[in-house]
Input
Amino acid sequence: MISNKKILFAAIFLLLILFFINYQKKTKNSELEIVKDPIFLIEENSIDNITIEFLTGETLYFEKKDNIWSITDPVIMKADNQTFNNICESIRNLTFSKKVKLQKGNIEDFGFEFPMLSIDFSVNGKNHKLKLGDNTFNGSEMFALADSTEEIYVINGGFINKFKKDVRDYKDKVISSFKEEHIKNFIFETENITLTAQKPTSEVIYTVEKNNEKIQYQKERAEEILEYFKNLRVEQWDSLGVVDLDNYGLENPEYKVSIDLKDSKYSFSIGKRGNSAYIIKDGEYNVAKINPYFEHSVENLEIKKEKE
Output
């Protein structure tokens, strides 16, 4: 009697043969050209809108005006320029290792009847389309269809990972960004420590209080705290819209920050849950996760008096 293990091995071997035959079918009657050239000839910073459609039917819309990217659907909000500059460069620099000239035009064999991802974008009013189909036999590459339906490209399979389904991955990640010369008043507060920074002249003036009394402090640590908030980007947005603030330690936040600049003013709170830190701007309900590496500077801000 044939053992179950032998039957299993035989089934796996048969599946591998069928997979290989299917892959051979995809390239049969096609002329294969091995190259390493860009698919699109696009100038830098020339893409002005992008539509991303996933296999599930979910679709995201983005557009650029005055070099600022925005999400226009399913929500309307400022997008993260750094993320979109990277996406645009990925499209502009997308190369192919092989090019298949179809003889019969049977694009369904390459996974384009139901593509994994479709990307529509325009460059100076000219529309372009990129469809991502099945993976190739080695699994590290995939088939792509660009504009023309007469040629199939083989591209790096990692390209698809640059496009996320969740709109939170595209929201503007900048919480605060300012220069020292624009500071009117910067206030950082903990439960019992208040750090204030002002720049009335060419030098930033710091004041540190503990329980409403001035204390001696390490200036380097104060500078590190200010530097952190001068260019603060979130790691990821956790929740967009109304949330239970207590889930993020924001009902009673550990830190509060107020930034008064020459041309703007805003404030936010930072809460903790375990080792994770979360931030929310006052008046908003969008919560993001941040790296709280400023805490080391806070812990060492005060100059402790040596015990006698």
